Amino acid sequence: MKLITSARNEQLKHVSKLLSHGKARRAHGQTVLEGVHLLQACLQAGVRPIQVYVPEHKRCAGEAGALLAKLPEHCVTPVAAGVLSRISGLAQAEEVLTLIDIPAPPARPRQGDCVVLDCVQDPGNVGTIMRSAAAAGVQKLVLGQGCADAWAPKVLRAGMGAHFLLDVSECVDLAQWCAGYGGSIWATALSATNGRNLYDTDLTRPAAWVFGNEGGGVSAGLLARATGCVNIPMAGATESLNVAMAATICLFEQMRQRL
Amino acid sequence: MKLITSARNEQLKHVSKLLSHGKARRAHGQTVLEGVHLLQACLQAGVRPIQVYVPEHKRCAGEAGALLAKLPEHCVTPVAAGVLSRISGLAQAEEVLTLIDIPAPPARPRQGDCVVLDCVQDPGNVGTIMRSAAAAGVQKLVLGQGCADAWAPKVLRAGMGAHFLLDVSECVDLAQWCAGYGGSIWATALSATNGRNLYDTDLTRPAAWVFGNEGGGVSAGLLARATGCVNIPMAGATESLNVAMAATICLFEQMRQRL
User: Fold this and answer.
1) CATH entry 3.40.1280.10 includes domain B114-258
2) Across the interface, do A237 and B165 touch by the CB < 8 Å criterion?
3) Closest residue of chain A to B256, computed from CA coordinates
4) What are the domain boundaries of chain A?
5) CB distance A162–B234 less than 8 Å?
6) Nearest CA distance, A82 vs chain B (angstrom)
7) Cβ atoms of B71 and B65 closer than 8 Å
8) Residue B49 · residue B71 · CB < 8 Å
9) Rounded to whole angstroms, how far apart are CA atoms A83 and A12?
10) Record: contact A245-B131, CB cut-off 8 A
11) Any idea what DSSP says for residue A100?
C-alpha cells in the first residue's frame, strides 16, 4: 500500500481523465465515484471497486474507514492530504474516489416499466430522474443519443446511488426501440395544454415513460410513436415544470395508482 | 445611454457585489436577475427594473430587444461585448443582467396554503421548490433561518420566475411562526418509515407544508409543533428522495386531491 503524494501520479492522472472526459470513460469502460455515499451504494449492490483512493487521514477513520476495512488491502490506496481535492469536483471536502468498471449494459428492455430519456442534457436532471425512478420502483432506464452521459460524475452525484439499482442502456436509437417495445408508451408534455390529464390516465399496466429535452420536450418522431401524450395540471401563471420534477410527479402517480 | 466598456465601471462593480454577496443584497435591498427569462417574468409581474445591463449586440435584437423596447430609455444600459460575462455566473452565454429592488416582504401568513423551509441549504433545492410551489398553486413561502437566500442568483435561476408569483418571507423564527398559524401543519419525513402515508392523508384543507434540511430533515422542535408527519411510500432499496422531489410530490398530491 504505497502512499501517493502527487496529483501527477499516473494512476491519479487516469482518474482525473475519467472524471472530466466522457471519451476516456467510454474508451476504458470505467468511471469514478466521488464520496463515501456512492462507494457505499456500489458495495451494497455487490459491485467490486477496481481501486479506492482515500485521503491518508480518512484511511481508518469514520464512515470511509469502516467501508474500506471490508475491502482487500490491494484495492485501497492512501493519498497525501490535499492531493485528491485537486482532481475531484467536490472541492469543499476531501473525499474518497472510487475507480469502477461501468456495469455492462443489460439487454435492452422490450417490456415492463421503463424510463426513457430523449435528449435530457442536464446532468443534474438525468441523475435526479434516476433517483426518482429507483424510488418509484422503475428499474429500467433507456437513454437516447444526446442525453448527458449516465456515468458522468455530476450524474452520479445527483443519482445518489440509484445507478446501482437500475439497468441502464445508453445511446439507444429511441425510434427503433419504441417500435420493439411491448407496453404503453407515455410521452410527457412540457405544458398543461397538450395531451390527456395525468390523473385521468390509467397507469396500472406496464409502461415506458418518455421524458424530453429541457427546452424542446419530447421530439416529434417519438410523440408520433407514443400511445399518448400526458400532461400535468398546473396552477395559473406557471408555464412548465422542470423535467426532473415532471418525471417525479408522473412516476409517483403511477406508483400511487398501483398501491 | 452611455456604453459601459469595462467591468471596473462603478455600476457593474455594484452589480457584481450583489451577485456574489448576500450581505450586499441585504444591505441594499437589491438583487440581480440573470438572463432574459427572469427579466420577462419580472416585467410580467409588474416589477419595474432599476436598470437593465445588456450586451451591446443584443440591445435591439431577439427576445431581449423586444422586452427592452418596452422600457424607458434611461433604464437600459448597453455594455461592450465580453464585459458582462466577466461578472455573471452564466459563463456560456452573454446575457442581460437586471438590477431590481427585492420586493418588500409581505405580512407573514397566518392562514392559507404555505410552503415552509427549515434549513434547506442548497440554492437549487430552494429555487426548485419555489417553482413547484407556484406550479401547484401555493403562493406563500416562509423561509426559516439557515435557508439559502431566496434572492440569490442560483435560487433565482432554479426558480425560473416563480419568485414573482410567490409571497416570500425570509429569516422567520419558524417555531414562533407555527404557534400563530391557523391551519394544519404537515412535516415531511425523509424516509418512508416515519409518519402517515401521504396518500392516506386528507389534504383538501389549507395547510402549511414543512420541508427540512437536506441531511437532517425537519428539526425536532418543528416536528413537535406539526399536526402530523407525512411520508412518501417508496420502492425497496431506496432510502430517501431529494427534498425538492419530495416537496414536488407532496404539493402535487395536494393539488390532485383538490381537483
Assistant:
1) yes
2) yes
3) A199
4) 10-101, 114-258
5) no
6) 25
7) no
8) yes
9) 9
10) yes
11) E
A128 with B236: Cβ contact below 8 A: no
CA angle, A234 then A235 then A239, to 5°: 65
Size of interface A-B (CB pairs under 8 A): 84
Give, for all 259 residues of chain A, the pLDDT tens digit: 689 999 999 999 999 999 999 999 999 999 999 999 999 999 999 999 999 999 999 988 888 899 999 999 999 999 999 999 888 876 666 789 999 999 998 888 899 999 999 999 999 999 999 999 999 999 999 999 999 999 999 999 999 999 999 999 999 999 999 999 999 999 998 666 678 999 999 999 999 999 999 889 999 999 999 999 999 999 876 667 889 999 999 999 999 999 9
Contact A136, A244 (CB under 8 A): no
3-state secondary structure of A99: strand
Quote the ipTM score: 0.90
Flag if B242 and A124 touch (Cβ within 8 Å).
Answer: no
Q: What end-to-end distance do the CA atoms of chain A give, in Å?
A: 51
Can you list the pairs that B197-201 forms with residues at least 24 positions away whose Cβ atoms lie under 8 Å? Answer: B197/B230, B197/B231, B197/B233, B198/B230, B198/B231, B198/B232, B198/B233, B198/B249, B198/B250, B198/B253, B199/A256, B199/A259, B199/B233, B199/B253, B201/B228, B201/B230
**Paired sense of beta strands B97-101 and B207-211, if any:** unpaired
Chain B residues with at least one Cβ partner in A under 8 Å: 44, 124, 128, 131-132, 134-137, 160, 162, 165, 199, 232-238, 241-242, 244-245, 248-249, 252-253, 255-256, 259
**B67's grid cell:** 422586452
The full 3-state SS of B22-46, as one line of letters, equals HHHHHHHCEEEEECHHHHHHHHHCC
Look up cell 445511446; give the residue.
A171
Architecture of domain B10-101: 2-Layer Sandwich (3.30)
Question: Which positions in chain B touch A245 (Cβ < 8 Å)?
Answer: 128, 131-132, 135, 244-245, 248
- Retrieve residue B188's grid coordinates: 415531511
Give the orientation angle of helix A123-135 with respect to helix B243-258, to 10 degrees: 60
Backbone angles phi, psi at A165, to 5 degrees: -110, -5
B144 touches B170 (CB < 8 A): no
